[in-house]
Design a protein that fits this description.
This protein has helices at about 20-25, 35-45, 50-60, 65-70, 85-115, 120-130, 135-140. By secondary structure, it is mainly alpha-helical. Helix 3 packs across helix 5 and helix 6 (about 120-130) packs across helix 7 (about 135-140).
Length: about 160
Amino acid sequence: MLNIMMSNPRGDNAPADDLGADWVRVLAHRQREGQHVIEAVVDRFRGAGVRPADVESHLSDGGDRLYTAAKSGDDRWADEFGGPRAVAVLAAEVSALLSHLVARAASVRSVCVEAMLDEFSAVTVAGAIGVARQKVYELAKPEVDENYLAHSPWRIE
């Protein structure tokens, strides 16, 4: 695949916050990773012709439509979503969101492990949650990390 560079006079020096509110909202799960990562992600989306609404749509269904189309057996299944490049970056973003949610759940578990250690031995806690005794102390944290999404994108408010 050719990587064609487009002329963008003075665009290379655009302010870091020039991503647009839609991108910032859709990529809220990326905020922990920093502005440079978000900019690179947006550049990949733009390069593949993917808009914020497209990303939001696939994050909202957890990648269900992409998965269904991919297993269809149709040689041109990706065309519906903008082609293989677009699908690759969309699938990567679904994965990034789900990784974020896994980390968020681990943060919640860590607080519970810490609380359980106040009352039970490490051996008892380890058995109760299905980890090695040594892992219990690594998991225990005094508070939930507040730098995660407040809710998943598919939650109805």
